[in-house]
Amino acid sequence: MTSKWEKLKIEERLIDILSHAKSYPDGHHFGKPFLTAYQLAIAFSQLHPVDALSLGFEVGGKGLGIHSSLAQYLARMLSTRINAGNIRNVEGRFLSNKFLGQISFNSGGEVIVSSLTGGQNQLSMFRFLEE
User: Fold this and answer.
1) Distances (CA, A) of 51 to 5, 62, 92, 107, 109
2) What pTM, to 2 d.p., does this model score?
3) In angstroms, how far is CA 31 from the centroid of its own chain?
4) Which residues contact 93 (CB under 8 A, 6 or more apart)?
5) Which of 14, 68, 7 is CA-nearest to residue 43?
6) Per-residue pLDDT tens digits for 86-127
7) pLDDT digits (tens, 9 = 90+) for 34-81
């Protein structure tokens, strides 16, 4: 049986999003920029709205009153696949919460405030590894 992850080609779509993230200035020695799980969820939702809805998650954020979000789902699935060695061209890291008050994101005019800042959980972020 094919999972929604496979059926909707989520991995390929996320890798496409990450691989098109531009560094400023282009070609900077730091390489491709990291995108947080929230940024990936927003981009995925905007590029593939029907598929994002079919997953049954909201993007996420503080004050939603939900414990499972699209951002969490994408981060968990990417992390699992990176750890298993199934994805070799994406790396994941955490952004420290030290001295961090609040991070917010703009999703088509809607402000999404991270529910992870200020707590013990750290914000996951991912980037495409250039060959």
Assistant:
1) 10, 23, 24, 17, 21
2) 0.91
3) 18
4) 34, 124, 125, 126
5) 14
6) 999 999 999 988 888 889 999 988 888 888 777 777 889 999
7) 999 999 999 999 999 999 999 988 887 776 666 688 999 999 999 999
